[in-house]
Specification:
With 257 residues, this protein is α+β, with helices and mostly antiparallel strands. 26% of the residues lie in helices and 35% in strands. It has two domains: 81 residues, Winged helix-like DNA-binding domain superfamily/Winged helix DNA-binding domain (Arc Repressor Mutant, subunit A, Orthogonal Bundle); 161 residues, Chorismate lyase-like (Chorismate lyase).
Length: 257
């Protein structure tokens, strides 16, 4: 591969515009293709920088820069003296990567694993707003899940999830209940879907009667509503999640940089 930046041409009906891409970005894209295709699975080591440099016929420094970006995006994990590994939600320290609710007196990890209760798990048809969030068509098949997460036996989070039907064929309430790890780890190991990033919208709400009962709070209790869309590789939306968080003993914590 030529060591100079190259460009590709993107066309519209009216014109063609050259799109320049630095070489390390091209290598990053090739590595992403291998991650997406499952050549290297979550938790597995990827080839060394030297091997990747030989594979793509570029310098080791170019590969290192590509991997630096993948590491910064939490797609791979460097381990001193061991190599670089595909990031996985099965690892203890990243199981709560997308959960920003923290207890007032410590961390999520200090509370221990959440107790999960599956309220419902059913096949349905995507409503207009769910279809829009998941880039589906209205009426497409989706899997709808409702569950409660409890910490120290106190119901703390009520979540409604929608997943596109085809990638999660065979997912049942029983499988969700029996799996001991994080839900995203289940998606990785049994369905080959890895959530790599998410976008959230947050606002304060009051629960309806059923939501209040499931969380054990008064109907007028203030709750934090968190709507999340989680994406796999290539910005493909794979989950819409709407959560109601109790904040009487917890708070939403995020680090901005």
């Amino acid at each position: 591969m030529d060591s100079n930046p190259s460009f590709s041409s993107t066309s519209t009906d009216a014109q063609q515009t050259p799109a320049f891409s630095p070489l390390y970005q091209q290598i990053k894209g090739l590595i992403l293709q291998s991650l997406q295709s499952g050549e290297w699975k979550p938790g597995e080591a990827i080839p060394s920088e030297m091997d990747l440099a030989a594979r793509y016929r570029v310098s080791q420094g170019t590969v290192r820069k590509a991997i630096d970006e993948l590491s910064a995006e939490n797609l791979v994990v460097r381990r001193q003296g061991k190599g670089t590994f595909v990031a996985t939600h099965a690892e203890q320290h990243v199981q709560y990567r997308f959960l920003k609710l923290q207890p007032d007196n410590g961390s999520v990890q200090s509370e221990g694993p959440a107790q999960r209760t599956i309220i419902d798990c059913k096949r349905s048809r995507a409503s207009a707003d769910v279809a829009r969030a998941l880039s589906l068509r209205s009426g497409d098949p989706v899997l709808q899940v409702r569950r409660v997460l409890s910490f120290a036996n106190v119901a703390t989070i009520l979540e409604d999830l929608w997943l596109p039907g085809a990638p999660f064929k065979g997912l049942t309430a029983e499988r969700l209940s029996n799996y001991q790890g994080a839900m995203y780890a289940l998606f990785e190991t049994e369905f080959g879907v890895r959530m790599v990033r998410a976008e959230e919208r947050i606002r304060a709400v009051n629960p309806d009667a059923e939501q209040a009962q499931l969380l054990g709070v008064a109907p007028q209790s203030p709750l934090l509503s968190v709507e999340r869309v989680a994406y796999t590789y290539n910005d493909t939306a794979m989950e819409l999640r709407r959560g109601l968080y109790r904040t009487d003993t917890h708070h939403y914590h995020n680090v901005l940089s």
